[in-house]
Amino acid sequence: MSIELEGKYQKGRGSVDEFLELTAIANPHARIVFVPPSRVAQDDVDDLLPGTSAAAAQESKSDAPAQTTETGGLTVFPRGVHELPPETKEIQPHPKGIELGILLQMLKDYEVTEKGTLYDFLQTRFCRVSPVTAAKFCSAVGVTSRTRASDIEPHQVEKLFAVFDSERLSPPPTDCLAPIGVRQLLAGMLKGVKAEFYAASTREAAVYRGRPFQIEAAIAFGGDLPGDQQARVIRFANRVPLLFQQSACSSFKAIEETPWKNYAMQQPRGGLPVGPLVVMIHMASVWVPFTSESKEAIADYDEIRKEMRLALMECGRKLGTYLRKRLKMRREGERRDVFERYIGEIAKALNAITGEDAKRIYEALLAQARSRTAVADQQLDEDGKIAKDDEDNDDEGVIIVMNAIAPIEESQPILAPNFDAPVASGARESTRKTPRKNVKPSAKDAKSAPVKVEKTAAKPAKNAIVTKRDLAARAPTSTPGHTPAVTPASTRAPSRPLRKPDSDDDPRLF
After folding, report:
1. Does this model's pTM top 0.90?
2. How many Å apart are CA 408 and CA 14, to the nearest integer?
3. Closest by CA position to 286, among listed 122, 91, 104, 100
4. Topology adopted by domain 95-166
5. Residues carrying CATH 3.30.230.10, the chain
6. Local structure of 87: helix, strand or coil
7. Which residues are CB-neighbours of 171 under 8 A, at least 6 positions away?
8. Which among 74, 88, 203, 510 would be 20 to 30 A from 119, CA to CA?
9. Looking at the domain 182-320, which fold is it?
10. What is the pLDDT of residue 421?
């Protein structure tokens, strides 16, 4: 198929490049080669068409994940999966999903083609209408099961339409829908968005106004995505990208209402989350309720928005679990660095106190530190699970690209101290003779060692009352045969002379 169009080619948001990029994400089974208008298409695409040797060589590289490449001005969107989506089946309209005018037109067409009864019309032209339900509808209108469809009056048609809305019916079948699928969503996001973490979720089929629909969501986090901007939102309806009127779309409102703060993301009040994040929402339905004929935004229905929020919250839980695992591993690694930094000194100190082998103490403390911080040694596989872990975690629909994870700033490794190095004899003797300070003696040492008690005269408090007896007691006394030592005046420290009271009537003397 080929088509010639005339227009202005430009890149950026809302351009042909973005439309093809999003189309390749929503259709991972397709392989697209885009040649810009500035080049000659036939000369550049000959070797890249399916069936050629170059195309076979590119598609044979199944070990590495498919990534969008651009070489020589050509943009190649490779095939992410090799399975085609399942074919959809045609179903009859549901009684709750039609309008009054459509019901009148269906009756007229049935009169022309079949000319049967109303009972047969309800069973053959609608889904989820059993014979019992058809008979109930006929009796509610006031006719029998043998009444022909051409004999129904307009007021009876209006009554039948009202009965459709009030009656409880089974939801329509969902084999008419073509969802992308969890693995296909991950393959498409991995092909079009360079990130470190991918998660996808597919909701069960639901019904609004008698029409079945299915919501799918996917997110990509980290990697090369900008971390200081709002999250990018990409929207699809039946695998077709929606590029315009983003704020008027129900999917955009569902993203704003999702509590991203619960999943370790920053989010201003009433806005999109901030961080390296891409959010994708896809709606598959037989009748997508667009806001206008341009088909640029999905109308806001409560049932649709609820399913979108639930799908986004499921992806958010997977993202929050991954981020908390990474944060815990980083914290435990920092704790281990602190332990290893001081374990050597603790081992030497314990050796000096107890005499135990310092190397044995160091190894025991190091093993204890590693067991306490074992989370730092955990490795996550591509599904977000802990490697060599048999537990069934809720990591279905998750892909982690280890090469795209930002490296953690680690401190320099701490070398184990060398306890076998010889110590100089002088240093050993000095350590033995040096008394230890501020060490509380044991009970055994307290009993054996003599206790020396020194009595020190109490120091008088400031402005205390001094008597003559106290002054006499402070005066130096000389014993017979003892000559007190006299300090030369040149070396004696100058002292403050005592002030003699003016009279004996000083109130401080008694």
Report:
1. no
2. 37
3. 91
4. Helicase, Ruva Protein; domain 3 (1.10.8)
5. 182-320
6. coil
7. 94, 128, 205, 206, 207, 212
8. 88
9. Ribosomal Protein S5; domain 2 (3.30.230)
10. 59
